[in-house]
Amino acid sequence: MKKIIVSAVAALGLVMAAQANTGGFPLDKAPINLQDQGSLQNGARLFVNYCLSCHSAAFMRFNRLKDIGLTEQQIKDNLLFTTDKVGETMKASIDPKQAKEWFGANPPDLTLIARSRDGLGGSGADYLYTYMRTFYVDPSRPSGWNNMVFPNVGMPHALWELQGKREAVFEVEQAHGQENHVFKGWKPVTEGSMTPEQYDRAVADLVNYLQWMGEPAQEHRQQIGKWVLLFLAGLIFITWRLNAAFWKDVK
């Protein structure tokens, strides 16, 4: 952890300078649709295949995925490792001690990551959607990767084989007597197995799943909330009319 803090303080370089006047890298709007079960199922598959090796989701059980249209047999056949059981929570396969040696800290649990990243710049889903699409090659970093949303991040780009490798392009601009490195775009290095459009769609599905995982009952809660508000509106109307009837003869 100390290594990460020291590196972050010592490397206020290109990305931090580029963000000095903007308050952070602008977040893209995540195309969230919690009613799209196909998107949620693909997001669950991506999460298990690319995230669960390092990150746990300790408050989510595999069998809860039946809520997004998967059968228990489909969960067993496609999303479970050989030693996992369908009633168990989603535990990372990585050893915590090794993770600390490799990354400087144990990777965080992702069950509530979408909710915990809510902020003034956008929703937690917007943050994650932009974060997973702004990794770039940076030889100065221990992992070889950096990120526009999270400068000097310790996490490597888990989906680089899908997106490919690219470099961030900066230009030096003078402002108030200081040199600022302003982000201008991306320079492709190697192609990924997906086109940019396909990769954006895959990330959208992954973030959609992370948003759902943070509160699986969200859609149900919102539906109940609408009926509760309608009930309260009707009750207020009835109370108002009863009050007028009781007091109509009182002057």
Structure description:
The protein is an alpha+beta fold and 251 residues long. It folds into 2 domains: 2-216, Orthogonal Bundle (Cytochrome Bc1 Complex, Chain D, domain 2), CATH 1.10.760.10; 219-251. The protein contains 10 helices and 6 strands, in the order αααβαβαααββαββαα. The strands form 3 sheets. A two-stranded antiparallel sheet has the order 1-2. The protein has a two-stranded antiparallel ribbon with strand order 3-4. Helix 3 (37-51) packs across helix 9 and helix 7 (124-131) packs antiparallel against helix 9.
Would you kindly provide a brief summary of this structure?
With about 250 residues, the protein is of the alpha+beta class.
Number of domains: 2
Rg value: 24 Å
- Output the helix-strand order: HHHEHEHHHEEHEEHH
- The secondary-structure class comes to alpha+beta
Could you describe the largest sheet, including whether it forms a barrel? 2 strands, antiparallel
Distance between the first and last residues' Cα: 75 Å
The share of residues in helices is 40-55%
Shape: extended
Corresponding CATH superfamily of the largest domain: Cytochrome c-like domain
The total beta strand count reads: 6
Under CATH at level 1, the class of the largest domain stands as Mainly Alpha
Mean pLDDT: 86
- Number of discrete helical segments: 10
Spatial strand arrangement across the major sheet: 1-2
Unreliable stretches covering 5 or more consecutive residues: 1-22
